[in-house]
Design the sequence.
């Protein structure tokens, strides 16, 4: 508390606190007020108490640093600890990180009780040096007023070692770990506790209690044990409770990502009264500072009864290299001072005044500091927004391209409850159904808006730099450079998301229009990445510490191959035209353990978009309608390992993978004996296209060979040279419902097949349906149309809801196979809906249609910039075991189609009910039965509002607030 008191006509400024640590906070607050040089602020009374009891950070000490001998820098760490205390943190965890925790012990302790354990060649003096450095670290942190935890990460969960460590085995591992931990705890008596994260299970409760639990018990039982809640079983919890060991459970709902500021899942308590911490990885290695983000996250933690926060700070190399180097300098943490300032001050007092949060900006940059605060808030929104749409483990996401577009569109989202994946979104659009999830198109629009706002702010501040010299002017310039990098990053991913959506539509619709859009958007995205490369090349690293964009130049090959791949796909579709079924012949790719991430996200990468895979094992099945009649003599050439992920481009000289291009010619099926492939088709006339090309790693000459389809010779004595591509096209009539393609060759020669596609002879239309448009703008409808014979006319048939007949508008050719028509904006001015279908005619009299008069496509016409409003007042508390009625008022009311209440209780299973509209109050009402509401639990609920224009609103919106309302039950 800081306040003025008057004693005998004398006014005195009083600073007092509950304990020494609190008094330090009060004195540091006074010092900051003095530095701000604002006399009125010096006497401003304040009274604060901690929102979260535990406010900590995590740092890593890698085994590589221990191998070299830990060159401990007291000056560096003393400065860092002082920063933490000034910002009101009260704990720090030093995590010993290695593939196995055992390997770090070998460089810290020497156990005469286990002479059979012979560590690597490493002298006892070096081991003693490491231990003394650790002791010094603990002492400095304790003297500064920080509670220190030793992080035992990658701790074995049982006696089954994945590999043998220098004499350790199942018989001596328990004893070794117990004695080693006991020695560490005795050597560092100021330790507050241990933080343990186990290697993957199965987790043995007895093994853990016999090592960790026993070591804590025999050293006084005064330490607190921090455990990952996802790894804590009731059995282990009960054992440690019986040993009277204090426990803090750690929750982390976003993994190693910096997600949006809400809890994806409520923590599991063992039991509910147990102390809990939330562990958060930082967003980026760039400067970060968004007060709104911190407030929202802390509010969610407090509402979920989480009483501690552990931050893994920005700029921290996961291996710990940045924080444990010999030439460590204060710049490593001082450049992120605002990050520490926001989390430390607000975690202590959520109501900390805005002028307190920004006064350091005024001291550094004068009156222009406010503008830099606004820029900080904008740039800090970019990476969390990107992380939500792409689940990844990149330590520096602002350098992450996401890989090639084919892989990019399949990456899972971080929260599948609220956010739709790209394939999920395109399936709902083409099916004409609504989704209650936020679409990737919405994220793309948000990223683009952020990029525009950041670019505008950077341009303004670059022309209006503060009159400062030295370090503050350098900080200003570096912040603008980082902001520009993040703006380009936002632009890049906004366009790449849109390109991925268009590429995904190819699978659903085969509309060549989408491929052209994807290529244009991808090329646009790459230009923004190139901007970051050029910026990096212009930075003088001797005058600035800002080096991050330099890594962007390593992605040039990826950008080039990404565009080249989409061009190859577009060329293939233009050459082949539309088809009703296509087959990609070849074998499964030969992959290694390094390709686990690729196969988890994109297991069918070797199959070309829109085609069905056929290898030498596919036997004809009447239910499938295709297959080999006798595959016994068939052989395959498999697709090579392809470059799709970012890591495939990191070491191109050592990487054996090839460029990801047209997958139809990357593999094939072949044989030296005759074989027949059957496809079931409706009677009619079809155009066949067979593709033959050997561009494998060991490409060679094939043939002479002979192909016959339903007794029609397609090719005879055909020879294909190495790398050559030949496409055979032929029209034939199927009368008995099956197509039989016979493959044969001369004795001692071979035949092969890469791809086969089948199309009707008449026109074939591919179109990606439109679901919504703006009535104030012209409506452009496009489609791709192809056929065996020249087209005579493509017609757009359309009408509004007030018309009985359809208008006919001739669609103009744009490029090969692409057609479009434009409905003028005045025609749409009063329309709520537009219905349409497309017809096409060739010069041979064949006709085709996409949609019809009876089943047209429907476009909902929206008013530009019309934003629905929603009103709801959540109860502060609710009585348990009693029915609870919730109300919401959506506007405009006449546009609302349906309101759904979604609620979740202790069982974590979402329940849904459709709310009823009250005609008197014009509110929507929903009743949650009392049997669902249990005492001392949290009720979690949200709303889904469906409007008549097919728009869906989530309330609360996860992009703007905590996506749930939380109500304690009493």
Sequence:
């Amino acid at each position: 508390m800081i306040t003025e008191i008057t004693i005998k006509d004398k006014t005195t400024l009083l600073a007092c606190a509950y304990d020494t640590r609190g008094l330090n906070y009060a004195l540091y607050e006074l010092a900051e007020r003095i530095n701000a040089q604002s006399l009125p602020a010096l006497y401003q009374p304040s009274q604060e108490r901690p929102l979260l009891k535990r406010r900590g950070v995590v740092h890593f000490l890698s085994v590589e640093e221990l191998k070299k001998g830990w060159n401990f820098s007291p000056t560096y760490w003393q400065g860092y600890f002082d920063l933490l205390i000034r910002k009101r943190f009260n704990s720090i965890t030093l995590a010993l990180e290695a593939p196995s925790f055992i390997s770090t012990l070998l460089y810290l302790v020497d156990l005469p009780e286990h002479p059979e354990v012979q560590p690597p060649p490493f002298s006892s003096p070096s081991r003693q040096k490491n231990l003394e450095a650790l002791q010094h670290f603990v002492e400095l942190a304790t003297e500064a007023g920080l509670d220190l935890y030793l992080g035992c990460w990658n701790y074995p969960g049982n006696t089954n070692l994945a590999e043998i460590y220098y004499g350790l085995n199942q018989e001596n591992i328990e004893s070794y770990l117990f004695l080693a931990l006991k020695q560490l705890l005795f050597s560092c008596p100021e330790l507050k506790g241990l933080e343990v994260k186990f290697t993957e299970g199965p987790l043995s409760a007895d093994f853990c209690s016999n090592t960790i639990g026993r070591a804590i018990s025999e050293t006084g039982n005064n330490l607190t044990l921090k455990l990952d809640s996802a790894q804590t079983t009731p059995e282990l919890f009960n054992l440690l409770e019986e040993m009277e060991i204090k426990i803090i459970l750690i929750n982390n709902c976003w993994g190693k990502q910096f997600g949006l500021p809400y809890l994806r899942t409520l923590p599991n308590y063992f039991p509910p009264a147990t102390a809990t911490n939330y562990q958060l990885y930082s967003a980026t290695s760039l400067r970060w500072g968004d007060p709104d983000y911190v407030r929202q996250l802390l509010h969610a933690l407090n509402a979920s009864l989480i009483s501690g926060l552990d931050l893994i700070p920005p700029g921290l190399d996961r291996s710990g290299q940045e924080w444990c180097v010999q030439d460590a300098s204060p710049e490593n943490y001082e450049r992120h001072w605002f990050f520490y300032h926001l989390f430390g001050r607000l975690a202590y007092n959520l109501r900390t005044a805005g002028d307190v949060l920004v006064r350091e900006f005024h001291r550094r940059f004068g009156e222009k500091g406010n503008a830099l605060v606004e820029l900080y808030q904008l740039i800090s929104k970019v990476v969390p927004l990107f992380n939500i749409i792409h689940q990844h483990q990149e330590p520096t996401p602002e350098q992450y391209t996401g890989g090639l577009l084919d892989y990019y569109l399949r990456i899972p989202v971080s929260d599948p409850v609220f956010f739709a994946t790209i394939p999920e979104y395109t399936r709902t659009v083409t099916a004409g159904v609504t989704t209650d999830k936020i679409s990737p198109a919405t994220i793309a629009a948000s990223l683009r808006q952020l990029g525009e706002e950041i670019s505008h702010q950077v341009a303004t501040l670059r022309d209006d730099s503060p009159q400062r010299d030295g370090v503050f002017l350098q900080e200003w310039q570096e912040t603008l450079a980082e902001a520009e990098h993040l703006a380009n990053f936002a632009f890049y991913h906004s366009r790449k998301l849109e390109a991925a959506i268009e590429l995904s539509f190819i699978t659903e619709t085969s509309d060549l229009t989408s491929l052209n859009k994807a290529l244009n958007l991808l090329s646009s995205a790459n230009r923004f990445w190139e901007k970051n490369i050029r910026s990096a090349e212009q930075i003088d690293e001797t005058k600035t510490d800002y080096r991050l964009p330099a890594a962007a130049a390593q992605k040039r090959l990826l950008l080039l191959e990404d565009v080249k791949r989409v061009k190859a796909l577009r060329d293939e579709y233009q050459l082949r035209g539309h088809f009703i079924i296509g087959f990609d012949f070849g074998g499964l790719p030969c992959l290694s353990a390094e390709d686990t991430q690729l196969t988890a996200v994109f297991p069918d990468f070797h199959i070309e978009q829109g085609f069905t895979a056929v290898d030498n094992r596919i036997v004809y099945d009447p239910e499938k309608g295709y297959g080999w009649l006798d595959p016994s003599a068939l052989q395959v050439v498999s697709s090579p390992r392809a470059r799709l992920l970012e890591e495939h481009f990191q070491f191109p000289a050592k990487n054996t993978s090839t460029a990801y291009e047209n997958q139809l010619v990357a593999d094939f099926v072949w044989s030296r004996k005759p074989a027949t492939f059957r496809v079931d088709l409706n009677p009619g006339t079809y155009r066949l296209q067979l593709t033959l090309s050997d561009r494998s790693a060991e490409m060679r000459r094939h043939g002479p060979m002979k192909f016959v389809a339903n007794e029609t010779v397609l090719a005879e004595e055909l020879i294909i040279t190495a790398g050559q591509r030949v496409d055979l096209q032929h029209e034939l009539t199927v009368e008995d419902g099956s197509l039989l393609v016979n493959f044969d060759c001369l004795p001692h020669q071979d035949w092969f097949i890469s791809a086969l596609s089948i199309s009707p002879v008449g026109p074939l239309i591919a179109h990606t349906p439109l679901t919504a448009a703006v009535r104030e703008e012209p409506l452009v409808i496009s489609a791709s149309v192809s056929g065996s014979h020249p087209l005579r006319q493509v017609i757009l048939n359309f009408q509004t809801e007030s018309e009985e007949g359809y208008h006919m508008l001739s669609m103009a050719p744009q490029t090969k196979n692409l057609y479009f028509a434009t409905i003028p904006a005045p025609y749409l001015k009063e329309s709520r809906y537009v219905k349409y279908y497309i017809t096409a005619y060739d010069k041979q009299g064949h006709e085709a249609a996409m949609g019809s008069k009876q089943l047209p496509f429907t476009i909902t016409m929206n008013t530009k910039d019309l934003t629905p409003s929603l009103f709801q007042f959540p109860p502060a508390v609710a009585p348990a075991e009693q029915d609870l009625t919730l109300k919401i008022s959506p506007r405009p009311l006449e546009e609302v189609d349906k309101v759904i209440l979604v609620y979740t209780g202790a069982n974590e299973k979402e329940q849904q009910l459709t709310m009823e509209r009250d005609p008197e109050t014009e509110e929507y009402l929903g009743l949650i039965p009392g049997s669902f509401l249990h005492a001392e639990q949290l009720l979690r609920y949200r709303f889904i509002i469906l409007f008549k224009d097919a728009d869906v609103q989530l309330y609360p919106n996860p992009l703007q607030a905590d996506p749930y309302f939380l109500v304690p039950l009493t």
